[in-house]
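B., you asked whether I could sanity-check this one before it goes into the benchmark set. Here's the sequence:
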Amino acid sequence: MYSDIKPKDMYKCFFAPVEGLAHTHTCNSCQGKTFKQILANGYANLKDHLDRAHEDWKDTVKRFVDSNASGPMDSFIIQPSQTAKNMHSWISWVIDDNLPFSFVESRGRRGRCSAPAPAPELSYAQAALNSHRDAKRARLSTSKYRNTEHVASTSNIVERANSSAKLILSDLRKSMKPETLHMIMFLKHNRSLWSNARVLQAAIDSAGAEAPDSSDEDEID
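And here's what the prediction gave me:
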């Protein structure tokens, strides 16, 4: 009868470890009786005690298992402790009602309630104030500037580029346009891509493009 009873269920129902004593267990149904048993080697000594002192221990274990299980998979699920449930309730209370953390630090409040009470309904003014505060918080958390997290601002390459830009944009060149500074910096840091001959040719082409066409002047005359 009840051959499917697991030794771990038997132990949870009747026994508990003794603090400070290794491999020592006490029977919950007996007054102060302790037993030596290395659980890794089995439960023989504990089972012998139940057979001698508690003849109906199998029925008790069966009722214990039925009362602590509601499905076939419960033996594979770790049930949370009451402390964990209370902590989760406090966290949910603070988050749902947008309360400050100091709300749960009050010893008086924590002593009067172990589980959250129903949150009071907010008035129209309080709801409008909370809505305005949430909108302002969302607006301030969104930056209008471009995200620069991908820029390695502490690398040596960036530091050298900043030093070069400081030398180019001196006190005598405060009116330099950003496009001009960008072009000079680009040419300076990509010196291997151009030569003096190419710069001279680009200057000649630019001057020729800006010069007025002589044929146009003849037609005007």
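One thing to flag: Strands lie at 15-17, 24-27, 34-36. Otherwise nothing jumped out at me.
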